[in-house]
């Protein structure tokens, strides 16, 4: 019997005969986050470190004109740019993100204080064009387009206060608090500033890993500074002030949904 069966058996399965004609409706990209960095190095050194050492990013955007963009890691592979990181209930974001490193020397200490290096216009234009394409292809939500300092506020401060997040907002790529609503809310908080526990709760609600103990400690200051660096780069000293509270209140406001019509 066995010998008869084996005699008429078809060829054994091989992977190249997998039928891919039917695709599942329930599927999406594994990429949920787009994370932006500056390299704190010049272009040749950035390329060398990101291609030869234990750190990497999917893309490197240079500061030359016209802008050179390197793709160092394919998008379906993991790059090592985020490190210990979190946002909302997601952690270890290397696994679920695409990383863009922007060539920029970061900052230098001078007798007048810390001086940050600005980003050339054409470099930012290139980052926005690249980000738009990645966001569209992977359907990345605006609340998941972040800086390294947002996902690791205790360790990282890139892409820094001169990175123009507002241009990302104008391009519809990130969330931004409505400025009139912020001005209105600030008047309320000028008279009555929320306590630190409120700040901690709002920062966590927005996405930051934030202590919830109600103490105004250095960790909490670092998270406030990360939020300010992104949304109010003119002053990012980590002080829990009325304008920061107003921005937090407005940006975490739930959109008002109209009541369902009665049947
Ligand atoms: Zn970084």
Automatic annotation (TrEMBL):
Its EC number is 3.5.1.28. It comes from Undibacterium nitidum. Residues 19-160 form the N-acetylmuramoyl-L-alanine amidase domain. InterPro entries: Amidase/PGRP_sf (IPR036505), Amidase_domain (IPR002502), NAMLAA_amidase_2 (IPR051206), Peptidoglycan-bd-like (IPR002477), PGBD-like_sf (IPR036365), PGBDSf (IPR036366). This is N-acetylmuramoyl-L-alanine amidase. Belongs to the N-acetylmuramoyl-L-alanine amidase 2 family. It catalyses: Hydrolyzes the link between N-acetylmuramoyl residues and L-amino acid residues in certain cell-wall glycopeptides. One of its GO terms (biological process) is peptidoglycan turnover. PANTHER family: N-ACETYLMURAMOYL-L-ALANINE AMIDASE AMID (PTHR30417). One of its GO terms (cellular component) is outer membrane. Gene3D superfamilies: Peptidoglycan recognition protein-like (3.40.80.10), PGBD-like superfamily/PGBD (1.10.101.10).
């Amino acid at each position: 019997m066995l010998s008869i069966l084996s005699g008429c058996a078809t060829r054994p399965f091989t992977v190249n005969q997998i039928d891919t004609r039917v695709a599942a409706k329930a599927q999406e990209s594994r990429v949920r986050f787009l994370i932006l960095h500056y390299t704190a190095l010049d272009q040749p050194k950035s390329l060398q470190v990101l291609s030869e050492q234990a750190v990497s990013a999917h893309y490197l955007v240079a500061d030359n004109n016209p802008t050179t963009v390197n793709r160092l890691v394919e998008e379906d592979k993991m790059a090592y740019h985020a490190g210990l990181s979190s946002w909302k209930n997601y952690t270890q974001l290397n696994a679920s993100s695409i990383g863009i490193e922007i060539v920029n020397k970061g900052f230098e200490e001078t007798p007048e204080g810390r001086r940050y290096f600005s980003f050339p216009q054409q470099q930012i234009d290139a980052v926005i064009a690249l980000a738009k394409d990645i966001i569209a292809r992977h359907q990345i939500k605006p609340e998941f387009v972040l800086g390294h300092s947002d996902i690791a506020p205790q360790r990282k401060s890139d892409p820094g206060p001169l990175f123009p997040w507002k241009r990302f907002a104008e391009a519809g790529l990130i969330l931004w608090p409505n400025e009139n609503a912020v001005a209105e809310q600030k008047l309320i908080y000028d008279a009555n500033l929320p306590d630190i526990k409120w700040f901690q709760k709002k920062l966590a609600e927005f996405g930051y890993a934030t202590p919830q103990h109600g103490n105004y400690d250095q960790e909490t200051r670092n998270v406030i500074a990360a939020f300010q660096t992104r949304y109010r780069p003119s002053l990012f000293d980590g002080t829990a002030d009325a304008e920061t509270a107003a921005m937090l209140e407005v940006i975490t406001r739930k959109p008002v949904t109209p009541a369902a019509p009665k049947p």
